[in-house]
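Exercise 7. Given the encoded structure of a 419-residue chain, write a plausible sequence.
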């Protein structure tokens, strides 16, 4: 079958790879000049099924409202984004009710764990290099209450065969010795030994190369303007320069999937949630973490990725605005300074890369994968804060659906039709 994939981020590229493996003739279109140039470019790099708990936890409404008054809030709702958020926002808030929240946690955890298995297969089958580490991850806390809450919530992860350990004092430093200078400020942490990390941009580039070897054609610098629906099918995609015809199409354009789908009359409820990152060269410093550290209070992470530290986090609802906001970036510098004060003299500010990307967020925290109501249109989008963790599994699942093969995990909970 001839299939055109829209989007060459983590999700589009991995999907193209698995489709090509199945013998399909695949084209990928992206407006950028290469793979993973938007949200997949500089994320925190964490492969963390342990973080399957959705952002809209019980109490999220209070957090969002108080964000209007605090520059340092980990969540930020900008007034200009409110009109576009109304319907979606109500569903987002509704999903913070405890039973729905827990259901959403289990759905995301199942996909994230499956995805780690598929990623492990890729690592075994292919000669790919992306600064991967298999050390686990550590969430650190400044107050006992929050630590207890996470430890209780993490009990749910045991249903997915994940393990965790509450670590304090010497045990905390055994897991992550680099915390020694600031250990007195921390009350402890929760260690997730099965988590991994790696550079998502490098991974996407490596998989893009593998997909090319299987015959996938990548068309860069091409902006999709609309999808034309004729009868029950998409007949073609119109771009600024030409048209793409195919038997089937896959929408993997991250947050922009909503806009492209709308042109064919399809409703895809994804909203952009902006996050920021700093990429800081180590510059000879060797006091950094050996695993990703998540600071629960700051809602941000510090990950070692090869010869840089990636500091990433915060969530800002500001529509499709990708501009860099000083106070959000300053929060990340502040976190780095709080956790690793000894790094400061080594930081060459001219060499720090500041970045922002739009997480494609669904109101229940899990992505849309599978068929749509348009006969030959499939979707693989809406992975929010866990798109790197879920990429390999989501792509394999979609390839299985397209091939009419039995999927390893039940695909129904991830369908666009669940709304
Ligand atoms: C700060 C931050 C930290 C994060 N940390 C993590 C993490 O540690 N672990 C984790 O698992 N996930 C993390 N994520 C989430 C993860 O990065 C995303 O879920 C993932 O990158 C989404 O991939 P995607 O392929 O759906 O979207 P994208 O990477 O945005 O790809 C979509 C592609 O579609 C293209 N496109 C859009 N519109 C058009 C058009 N009209 N025509 C042509 N092309 C178009 C874009 O150019 C883009 O290349 C983080 C995200 C952020 C912002």
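Solution.
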């Amino acid at each position: 079958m001839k299939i055109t994939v829209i989007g060459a981020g983590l999700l589009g590229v991995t999907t193209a790879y698995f489709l090509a493996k199945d013998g399909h003739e695949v084209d990928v279109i992206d407006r950028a000049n290469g793979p993973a140039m938007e949200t997949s470019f500089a994320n925190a790099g964490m492969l963390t099924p342990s973080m399957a708990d959705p952002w809209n936890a019980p109490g999220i409404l209070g957090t969002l409202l108080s964000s209007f008054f605090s520059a340092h809030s980990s969540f930020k709702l900008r007034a200009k984004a409110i009109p576009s958020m109304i319907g979606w926002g109500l569903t987002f808030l509704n999903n913070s009710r405890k039973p729905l929240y827990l259901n959403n946690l289990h759905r995301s955890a199942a996909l994230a764990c499956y995805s780690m298995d598929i990623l492990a297969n890729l690592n075994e089958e292919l000669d790919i290099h992306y600064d991967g580490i298999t050390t686990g991850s550590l969430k650190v806390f400044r107050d006992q209450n929050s630590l207890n809450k996470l430890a209780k919530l993490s009990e749910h992860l045991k249903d997915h065969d994940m393990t965790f350990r509450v670590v304090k004092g010497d045990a905390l430093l055994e897991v992550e010795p680099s915390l020694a200078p600031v250990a007195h400020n921390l009350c402890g942490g929760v260690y997730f030994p099965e988590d991994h990390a790696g550079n998502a941009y490098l991974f996407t580039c490596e998989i893009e190369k593998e997909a090319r070897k299987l015959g996938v054609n990548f068309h860069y610098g091409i902006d999709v303007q609309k999808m034309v629906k004729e009868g029950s099918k998409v007949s073609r995609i119109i771009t600024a320069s030409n048209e793409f015809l195919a038997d089937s199409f896959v929408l993997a354009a991250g947050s922009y999937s909503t806009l492209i789908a709308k042109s064919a009359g399809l409703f895809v409820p994804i909203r952009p949630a902006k996050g920021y990152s700093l990429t800081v060269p180590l510059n000879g410093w060797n006091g950094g973490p050996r695993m990703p550290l998540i600071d629960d209070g700051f809602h941000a992470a510090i990950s070692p990725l090869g010869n840089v530290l990636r500091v990433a986090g915060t969530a800002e609802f500001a529509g499709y605005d990708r501009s860099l906001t000083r106070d959000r970036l300053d929060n990340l510098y502040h976190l780095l300074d709080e956790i690793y004060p000894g790094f400061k003299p080594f930081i060459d500010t001219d060499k720090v890369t500041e970045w922002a990307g739009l997480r494609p967020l669904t109101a229940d925290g899990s992505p849309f994968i599978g068929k749509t109501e348009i006969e030959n249109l499939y979707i693989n989008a809406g992975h929010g804060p866990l798109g790197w963790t879920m990429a390999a599994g989501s792509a394999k699942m979609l390839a299985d659906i397209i091939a009419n093969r039995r999927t390893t995990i039940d695909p129904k909970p991830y369908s666009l039709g669940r709304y």
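Remark. The longest helix spans residues 98-125. Students should compare their own answers with the one above.
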